[in-house]
Amino acid sequence: MKTTKPSAHASSLPAAAFPIESWLVFHRRLVIVALVTVALSLRAACFVELAASPCFWLYEWNQTDMNYFHSWALAIMEGDRWSRDVDPPLHLWHRRVAQQFAERYPQRWAAIVARYPDNPALALWRQWAGAHGTYQDPLYPYLLAGVYAALGVAAGWIYALQCFVGIGSLLLVYFITRRHFGDLAAVIAAGLTLLYAPLLFYEFTLLRATLITFFGLLIVVLLDRARWRRGMADWAVAGLVTGVAMVLKAHFMLMMPFGLLLLARTGMPRKRRMASASAFILGVAAGFAPAVVRNVVVGAPALRTAGGGAATFALSNAAHSGYVAWDYDGAAEALAEGRGRLLPTVWATLKGHSSPAGYLRLLGAKLAGVVRDLEEPNNANFYYARLYSNVLRRLPLTFGVLGPLAAVGIVLALRRRARVGPLLALIALNLIVLVGFMVFSRFRVPLAAALLPFGGLTGAELVRALGTRRWGRAAGLGVAVATPMLFTISVATAGAPRIRAVDVEKGFEVYYAVKLAQATEHRDLSAVVAILRDALAHQPAVVRALGPRRPPVGNDERQLAAFYAGLYRLAADAVEQAGLKDEAAAYRARAVELGGVPTTAPSSQAVSSSCRVGGLSGGWGASCPG
Fold first, then answer.
1. DSSP bridge pairs for 380
2. Is residue 301 part of a domain?
3. In whole angstroms, how large is the CA radius of gyration of the chain?
4. For 315, phi and psi rounded to 5 degrees?
5. What is the pLDDT of residues 575-616, one digit of tens each?
6. Closest to 610 (Cα-Cα) out of 564, 560, 567, 549
7. N or C: which end of the chain has fewer CB within 10 A?
8. Residue 68: its pLDDT value, please?
9. What residues of the chain score a pLDDT lower than 70?
């Protein structure tokens, strides 16, 4: 194997630590092969596990961005190449905001109803999103459409592609860390990346988190390269990728002024700086050009790619919002005043607070939410997926551990802050998104990826301290990491349940109910029994704990108890038909322990609907719950 000459960084290490770093430097190719092999193995195992679960099918839940992206991609495939007819989504929360608008502004609502009697709520959201504009940034659905057209309409192809993108992010973390902090830190950072399960989880969703993570890291690499090589072509490529990233997610536009600031501080002659700046700006324009062309063709504002940004800001920043709670009434008022335009809506939202201190408290709550050791669900639930994946369940690293590791690494790197400027800018960008909007797990994953190199630095410094027997430094690093970790982990104990009733119900609806219908159609009783057993085998731990001694607490637990009581009754009828009377008796006893199935319980609907769709009652003599 061809070896690489040790870097200057490696040669400057203490003698006792040098052998580790030296070995890693001379075996870089082997290290990369090992990292990719482990990453591929984890993804292959996770793919197999989640393919036999509801998680692969949750994009069919029509209240999610996943379903919206999927439907948009299908519309493109069916001939709407310019997305002329793609409307804003009309999820339940969109309808609730529209209802609040109708109650507060009856005259304006009456005018909309008179003009659009069939669907006034959709008409209102069309106005707020802008004429012919796209509600979400368009790159992701166009990528989905391209993959569907080339390989077939199956989400599995998207997940496979995103797995390779995730491996690309792993390598980018390794290269970024190695450039700035050395090979030992790079290997530790890559190891942390492999152990951080949320990064892997979002590769198996129809969400942009994986691509946003990759593009953020790639921009850091390209800006670093352009800064040190100082070539116009390098700046043009960095600009091009930034422009493309802006079509994926509009917040990447904030990397453009940072790139220009970085360029201004390179120390190049003025003429060369101006030429490089022009190349960077032209690159951004070229990357963003497809969105502009689309907008011009359909008659939308040329530079607008996400008409839903104003609504998202209003929902998450109005007076009664929380760090993940939405203020529907405040959002309706702000959107009405701002008429859906971003800056007027932002101003109307901020005016709704009684004082600046009140808004600062909200931002503080969001910042505290960022560091919580909890993956707040939105669209997809990380903890629900762990019910079906040993890989996700066993990967140990959480944000409550990564955050403190990275915080110490950032402090250690401050003396070279000019060198790591692009990486710090990426962290700042992601913090702005989280604190300025919503602290959901899928929005925090790109931040975690940007923090990984600093976590690797902390790990490397600890290894070097131990290797050179500097016990005081090692103890100091340990205390510096452990102290904030006590906070990040402890605050995760409060709040909403990790697996919600809606996660379980929708998972059953899009997966188990469909399989039950197919098995019933073929009158395959053994398949019905196996399907119901599988659904019961993957129930949340909180449901297993419920019973006479531990009754449900809160509405969500009551819904879970009602849902599983109904499911146990359904399974009891099926296994009894199969002649398994003891198992049926055990299932019925468990249903009684969970409190029965109230006929009005919302959570019984998913089980009841599957019973109707599959014809279980008529086919097997089973009595549908509820």
1. 378
2. no
3. 27
4. -60, -40
5. 999 999 999 999 999 999 998 544 333 344 444 444 433 334
6. 567
7. N
8. 97
9. 1-18, 491-497, 596-626
Measured over the CA atoms of residue 616, residue 522, residue 52 and residue 579, the dihedral's sign is positive
Please name the residue that has the structure tokens 């913090």.
431
> Is there a domain that residue 217 lies in?
no
- Angle (nearest 5°) at CA 249 between 146 and 211: 55
From CA 618, how far away is CA 270, in angstroms rounded? 82
CA 35-388-69 angle, 5° bins: 80
The predicted structure's pLDDT at residue 497: 63
pLDDT of residue 323: 83
How many domains does one find in the chain?
A: 1
Residue 592 lies in a domain: yes
3-state class percentages of the chain: helix first, strand second, coil last, to nearest 5: 75, 0, 25
At residue 498, the pLDDT reads: 87
pLDDT at 486: 84
561 part of a folded domain: yes
If you search the block for the tokens 């996660």, which residue do you land on?
A: 503
Please give the pLDDT value at position 266: 82
| Rounded distance between C-alpha atoms, residue 132 and residue 135, angstroms | 9
User: Rounded to whole angstroms, how far apart are CA atoms 557 and 510?
Assistant: 21
88 CB-near residues (< 8 Å, 6+ apart): 94, 122, 125, 126, 128, 129, 135, 307, 308
Predicted local distance difference test score (pLDDT) of residue 21: 87
Its domain, for residue 517, covers: 501-620
pTM of the model: 0.91
Q: Is 196 helix (H, G, I), strand (E, B) or coil?
A: strand
Would you tell me how many other CB atoms lie within 10 Å of the CB of residue 588? Answer: 17
Phi/psi of residue 57, nearest 5 degrees: -115, 5
**DSSP, res 376:** -
Question: How far is 147 from 155, CA to CA, in rounded Å?
Answer: 9
Residues contacting 611, CB < 8 A, separation 6+ = 570, 617, 622, 624, 625
CA torsion sign for 496, 497, 503, 505 is negative
Q: How far is CA 236 from CA 139, 276, 407, in A?
A: 20, 8, 32
Q: Bridge-partner residues for 243, per DSSP?
A: none
The pLDDT of residue 412 is: 94
Q: What is the pLDDT of residue 491?
A: 63
